[in-house]
Design a protein that fits this description.
With 454 residues, the protein is of the alpha/beta class. 39% of the residues lie in helices and 14% in strands. It has 15 helices and 15 strands. The strands form 4 sheets. Strands 4-11-10-9-8-5-6-7 form an 8-stranded mixed β-sheet, with helices on both faces. Helix 2 packs across helix 3. It is globular. About 3% of the residues have low confidence.
Length: 454
């Protein structure tokens, strides 16, 4: 089953090391199936439990993935090679629309908030044993969560959305467990799961969020947790509507033991209303909000509310490691939250104008695109590599959809955060020109693909 590659170790650590060396050397290609436990144990003359322990080590290290009776196989991408490293060089003549960053011009001036936090630290230095969450930030976050109709619960502060999600998954799941995720979805999350020894189960979505039937299928297939992006979904811009949220709550209410994580990283830069899922009766849940998009990626801070047990586990484990997030950061974010002069509507309106301009110009040329909220527009294409190369020649660098896909069709992610609406026509014309070269055009459409994300 492993071809000419031979395994000779007799201890679990030796077997695991030999397989990992084969992967690193390229002798075991991505997707290569591993022998069944008993077959390899018989070949090596060891107990099947020894091989099981070796496979468990490899799974925990993100080298292999296990899918129940389908067996184990080498992962498509090693856990130490994150998807965001799939980058195209940006030529001097080209515009970089691939980085996913917010527009610096729409971020607040941090100087007053940092000064206020420094003054607070001078007056009352934080010491070991003090509360881990700044009272001002706690009050603001709690009031915002309550205003959005979320159940009351303890609040945790961590270093960004992904850090929070990692802590929640690590405290509630075990290696080998399956997690339902949006497809296409956030590349960093798709990398995090196998690094934790978890298995991603793709859930199809459209502009209104995950499809209820697809989510039910994933959960009934064994997924023990689900991560849903509330608004500004990366990469498609999907945002939960009231109707879709109601449908998803019905799916979740019938499966109360599923861990629900809502990623509302778009809070502060979107004007779509927030539709919570956490009141669906889930026993274990959390809603995560980050400061990165509204106040700047270097403010590594997020707030999360959830059920007592889940947040309690996160806080307990955090105390044994990082301890807490710096109160200087917490107080800076709290000060920005209180005093930021740029209302959410103005920031959201600017991003909406940029998304709308590109989507409108593409539609006028028969090209389907998606971007209900957030910083990005998703454009389905028949072949990512060909489209990327052709766009670079025309002076545009966008992100390959491969960073974000599991089983969904190809596409391109265009970050419009700094795209002047006046540029949208030229970009749309270049995209339409690139796509018009493919066959399968119907009517006025030039992309040759379905307008649906799925």
């Amino acid at each position: 089953m492993l071809g000419d590659y031979r395994i000779t170790g007799r201890r679990a650590s030796e077997i695991a090391a030999e397989i990992e060396r084969g992967v690193s050397a390229g002798q075991l290609a991505p997707g290569t199936p591993l022998p069944p436990l008993r077959d390899l144990a018989t070949e090596l003359g060891v107990n099947p439990n020894t091989v099981a322990a070796a496979y468990r080590l490899l799974r925990d290290r993100g080298v292999i993935e296990t899918a129940g009776r389908k067996g184990s196989r080498i992962r498509p991408r090693p856990a130490h090679t994150p998807r965001d490293e799939i980058r195209l060089p940006v030529p001097a003549h080209a515009r970089d629309l691939a980085d996913g960053n917010p527009d610096p011009a729409l971020l607040p001036d941090l100087t007053p908030a940092l000064a206020a936090a420094a003054e607070a630290a001078r007056r009352t230095p934080v010491r070991y044993g003090d509360p881990t969450v700044d009272p001002g930030l706690l009050a603001l976050a709690g009031a915002a969560f309550a205003e959005d109709g979320l159940p009351a619960g303890p609040i945790a502060v961590a270093s960004g959305s992904l850090d929070t999600i990692e802590r929640i998954l690590a405290t509630r799941l075990r290696p080998g467990d399956a997690v339902a995720v949006e497809d296409p979805g956030w590349g960093s999350l798709l990398d995090l799961l196998p690094a934790l020894g978890l298995r991603a189960v793709p859930v199809r979505l459209d502009d209104a969020g995950p499809l209820p039937g697809a989510l039910a299928e994933a959960l009934d297939g064994g997924a023990r947790a689900v991560v849903v992006t509330s608004r500004a979904q990366n990469p498609t811009g999907a945002a939960l509507t009231a109707g879709r949220a109601e449908e998803l709550r019905a799916v979740l209410s019938a499966r109360p033991d599923v861990l629900l994580i809502e990623d509302d990283h778009g809070h502060g830069i979107v004007d779509q209303p927030y539709h919570p899922l956490a009141d669906a009766g889930s026993r274990h849940w959390a809603v995560v909000r980050s400061a990165a998009k509204a106040y700047g990626p270097d403010l590594r801070l997020s707030v999360a509310v959830g059920d007592e047990d889940t947040v309690g586990r996160v806080l307990g484990r955090q105390r044994l490691g990082a301890g807490w997030v710096s109160h200087l950061l917490q107080q800076t974010v709290a000060e920005l939250w209180r005093t930021d002069a740029a209302p959410v509507g103005r920031v959201a309106g600017a991003y909406q104008a940029r998304r709308g301009a590109l989507i409108g110009e593409l539609a006028a040329r028969g090209v389907a695109a998606h971007g209900a909220s957030g910083l990005n527009v998703w454009v389905p294409v028949p072949d990512e590599a060909v489209a990327l190369a052709a766009l670079v020649q025309r002076g545009w660098v966008v992100a390959p959809g491969a960073r974000y896909r599991l089983q969904s069709p190809p596409g391109l992610r265009v970050t419009v955060a700094q795209l002047d609406p006046a540029e949208a026509g030229r970009l749309a014309a270049d995209l339409a020109s690139v796509l018009s070269g493919w066959h399968g055009i119907t009517g006025a459409r030039v992309d040759g693909t379905s307008s649906r994300l799925v």
